[in-house]
Design brief:
Keywords: 2Fe-2S, Iron, Iron-sulfur, Metal-binding, Oxidoreductase. The protein contains 5 helices and 5 strands. It is an alpha+beta fold. The longest helix has 16 residues.
């Protein structure tokens, strides 16, 4: 099968059809940014971007993504020039142990794209600022952090959005 990850085509031979996207990324392509936190789609540590939308890669079969563009945290930014969300996390100390950070960053990138498209969240009311602290917290609620670095993630995301 063929996967397009971070702009590069990868041919995977002999991949079990039951292999999750997370396992294919980590075990076959050696892209270890996405983490296996719960294996049930509840923690968000495995978040990647699939055609620009954030998804829990532990819940998706790799074989179903042959025509998709997959972006992992390794595909954001470049050496010496981090993605704005990565820079925001660095500037605002938006991480502690770092285990959830790649998923948080991918989720924030996807979330900012949703905001740019004007998509409301469950917390949005008419006239709400789509990047208020409450909105950012609601939109990032699918990504858990055991270290509770949340207070620093909000300004990191706001900085990445240019606010």
């Amino acid at each position: 099968m063929r996967l397009t990850v971070n702009g590069a085509q990868h041919h995977l031979v002999g991949l079990d059809p039951r292999t999750t996207l997370l396992d294919a990324l980590r075990e076959r392509l050696h892209l270890t940014g996405a983490k296996n936190g719960c294996d049930h789609g509840q923690c968000g540590a495995c978040t990647v971007l699939l055609d620009g939308r954030r998804v829990n890669s532990c819940l998706i079969l790799a074989i179903t993504q042959q025509d998709a563009e997959i972006t992992t945290v390794e595909g954001l930014g470049h050496k010496g020039e981090p993605h704005p969300v990565q820079q925001g996390f660095l500037d605002h100390d938006g991480f502690q142990c770092g285990y959830c950070t790649p998923g948080q960053i991918c989720s924030a990138v996807g979330m900012l794209d949703e905001v740019g498209k004007g998509w409301p969240s469950a917390a949005t009311s008419d006239g709400d600022d789509l990047l208020s602290d409450a909105e950012i917290r609601e939109r990032m609620s699918g990504n858990l952090c055991r270290c509770a670095a949340y207070p620093n993630m909000v300004p990191a995301i706001r900085q990445a959005a240019g606010r």
